[in-house]
């Protein structure tokens, strides 16, 4: 009985039902627009924070570049020092090899002299 009376009253008040549905649709659309606006606003503020963070990074990057340049300069100096040491060590090695070869040559000459003397004494 209540169902039939509500269906009968719906036919009598259909303008009111259409008005309420229209209000619900309008309210839903306003909510969607509000949330999209808030989300865009949040994204834009996040972009501003990102830009501000990047500005802070520029200053940090400048000190990083200065530190990097100082390290590079130290490394270049160490490289130049190591090249000088390498040349010195190479020269010392070459001198040692020359001395070794001259001693080897003298030893070979002494062996040859000893062999000649041994041959002469045996004859």
Radius of gyration from the CA trace?
49 Å
The biggest beta sheet, please? none
What low-confidence regions span 5 or more consecutive residues with pLDDT below 50?
none
Could you give the order of the helices and strands?
HH
Report the helical percentage: over 70%
Helical stretch tally: 2
Give the helix/strand class.
mainly alpha
- Given the C-alpha coordinates, what overall shape results? rod-shaped
β-strand amount: under 5%
- Gap between N and C termini, in Å? 154 Å
Transmembrane segments: 15-32
Keywords: Coiled coil, Membrane, Transmembrane, Transmembrane helix
Coiled coil: 93-120
Task: Write structural notes for this entry.
The protein has 2 helices and no strands. With 123 residues, the chain is an all-alpha fold. The chain has one domain. The longest helix has 109 residues. The protein starts with a helix and ends with a helix. Keywords: Coiled coil, Membrane, Transmembrane, Transmembrane helix.
């Amino acid at each position: 009985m209540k169902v039939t009376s509500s269906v009968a009253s719906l036919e009598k008040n259909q303008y009111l039902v259409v008005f309420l549905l229209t209000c619900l649709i309008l309210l839903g659309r306003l909510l969607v627009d509000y949330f999209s606006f808030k989300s865009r606003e949040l994204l834009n503020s996040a972009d501003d924070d990102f830009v501000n963070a990047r500005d802070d990074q520029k200053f940090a990057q400048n000190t990083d570049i200065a530190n990097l340049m100082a390290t590079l300069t130290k490394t270049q100096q160490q490289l130049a020092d190591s090249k000088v040491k390498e040349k010195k060590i190479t020269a010392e090695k070459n001198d040692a090899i020359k001395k070794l070869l001259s001693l080897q040559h003298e030893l070979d000459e002494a062996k040859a002299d000893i062999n000649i003397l041994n041959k002469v004494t045996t004859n």
